[in-house]
């Protein structure tokens, strides 16, 4: 004789098992989502580090070239001054482009794990509704 069936607990136990399986699947999905977002975040961090190093190097070069342009301005021929200022302007444009790229990447990195937070918030809302 099946006592669970007699006491009416078999349906309750089946619902409990189904809920546990559904919860395990949901937890696994959330962990997969977090793992994917962590990989994306690592790519952004790597980009920020590389751009930061490049920005530092370009800043040094730009300052050296800018200083050379200031010195060349006071030399005798106007061709030296034009070339020196053109090179300095080119380095300054490259520096500005890299700075804009770094700022853009940093703005994207500020929204880390948005999908995971959204899914967990929806899960929490669904749990509160059931209670």
Automatic annotation (TrEMBL):
One Pfam family matching this protein: Phage_holin_3_6
Keywords associated with the record: Membrane, Transmembrane, Transmembrane helix
Transmembrane annotation, as ranges: 45-71, 83-103
Protein's name in the database: Phage holin family protein
Species per Swiss-Prot/TrEMBL record: Acidovorax bellezanensis
């Amino acid at each position: 004789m099946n006592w669970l069936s007699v006491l009416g607990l078999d349906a309750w136990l089946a619902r409990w098992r189904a809920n546990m399986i559904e919860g395990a699947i949901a937890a696994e999905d959330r962990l997969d989502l977090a793992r994917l977002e962590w990989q994306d975040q690592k790519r952004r961090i790597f980009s920020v580090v590389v751009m930061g190093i490049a920005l530092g190097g370009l800043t040094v070069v730009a300052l050296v070239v800018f200083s050379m342009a200031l010195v060349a301005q006071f030399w005798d021929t106007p061709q030296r001054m034009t070339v020196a200022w053109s090179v300095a302007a080119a380095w300054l444009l490259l520096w500005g482009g890299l700075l804009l790229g770094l700022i853009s990447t940093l703005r994207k990195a500020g929204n880390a794990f948005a999908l995971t937070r959204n899914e967990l918030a929806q899960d929490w809302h669904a749990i509160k509704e059931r209670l």
